[in-house]
Amino acid sequence: MPMRPCWVEISTRALEENYRYLETLAPRDAELLAIVKADAYGHGLTICVSAFARSGAGWLGVTSVEEGVAARTVCPGARILVIGSVFPGQAAAVIEHRLTPVVWERWQFDELEAACRAAAAGPNSIPFHLELDTGMNRQGLALDDRSAGLESVLAHFSAASPLRLEGVMTHLYAADEADGAATGEQLARLDRALVRIGELGHWAEYLNVGNSAALLAGQGGTIVDVAASHGMKALLRPGLALYGLAPRFEPEEPAAVTAARGRLRPALTWRSRVVGVRRAAAGATVGYNGTFVVAEPMQLALVALGYADGLDRRLGNCFSLLVRGERAPIVGRISMDQTVLDVTEIAGVEPGAEVVVIGQQGEQAITAYDHADACGTIPWEVFTRISARVKRRAV
């Protein structure tokens, strides 16, 4: 059955080229972990995982065990890191589907160990990554918490434990700040923690740190140096850049990021169609509560697109979409399932005409940053709020 005309197209070639380009930016001794959490930033998990795998991605990063299981069905051989760890009752699925959890809470270790015993897992057979909080105060083992610090956690593990410390991880909270001061402080705390881990008789293969901003700005070399000083390999975690956008930097963008921005290819195009066209007389109101009043006769186009599809309601009366290669202002409030455009100055608009919400049409383009700027948010939210009812198509 034909679907309602509101859909997203994902360029798999753009995804593959972005991944390969980011590989060229990574230091030679580093590996990349492709972040595909939140349905691959709203781009469609199955489509994106397949594209990254074709590009040679050996690691995938997801939020949850559920996402990990879904990714495993597409990529049987990939290493899949569950960044959000396990929740009660999920550890058996981690073992069954060969997922690698990030762990930092005592109860998470208990969940995994109980599942390991039930599965008769052998010593050091189930890898995990230990997250350390180096300043973000969100998730991760607090390094200044003596009751649950490194000593008490690592003392629990012996050669007979089924769990194996494969990686040490942290989140950089200000990698998009051009001076790099906060990142330097975090890496210094991380380095001290790695020294202490070594003193306690433990070692991990991977140092798992670094996002798109860190990679594009050239901070990967510093991360590799920290890793190498402890006999580890750096595992860098690009996210937004994989999908063709570079994070913005404050207060000034490094030249390397500007160059990368010109090389990355946005992978997502969001489209809909005109449902109907009508004339509105002067004095008529448009949409709920009549927030737009027609000043002179206008031609209005109804589009199969609303806030239930992910179009931010705040864009009413202050944003435009593309029709026939021209910008058509949104008039009135955005409804749950429909949006009205002013097409008075655009000739030939008829039912069925294509509308571009994000992407290029003719010489005009609308980006996720355009949406984000208009709403006071970030492109990550713009992408991930595109609802599941909007069909993703690989092109």
Explain the overall architecture.
There is one protein chain. The chain has helices spanning 12-25, 37-41, 45-54, 65-74, 91-96, 106-118, 150-154, 181-199, 212-216, 220-229, 255-263, 368-375, 379-384; strands at 6-10, 31-35, 59-62, 79-82, 99-103, 126-133, 141-142, 163-169, 206-208, 233-236, 268-280, 285-286, 292-293, 298-303, 320-323, 326-329, 339-342, 354-361, 364-366, 391-394. With 395 residues, it is an alpha/beta fold. The protein folds into two domains: 12-263, Alanine racemase (TIM Barrel); 268-394, Lyase, Ornithine Decarboxylase, Chain A, domain 1 (Beta Barrel).
CATH class category name of the largest domain: Alpha Beta
**CATH fold descriptor of the largest domain:** TIM Barrel
Coarse shape: elongated
- Largest sheet entry: 9 strands, mixed
Percentage beta strand: 15-25%
Rg from Cα:
24 Å
Number of self-contained structural domains: 2
- Give the end-to-end Cα distance, rounded to a whole number of Å: 20 Å
User: Could you say what the CATH architecture of the largest domain is?
Assistant: Alpha-Beta Barrel
Q: Estimate percent helicity.
A: 25-40%
Number of strands: 20
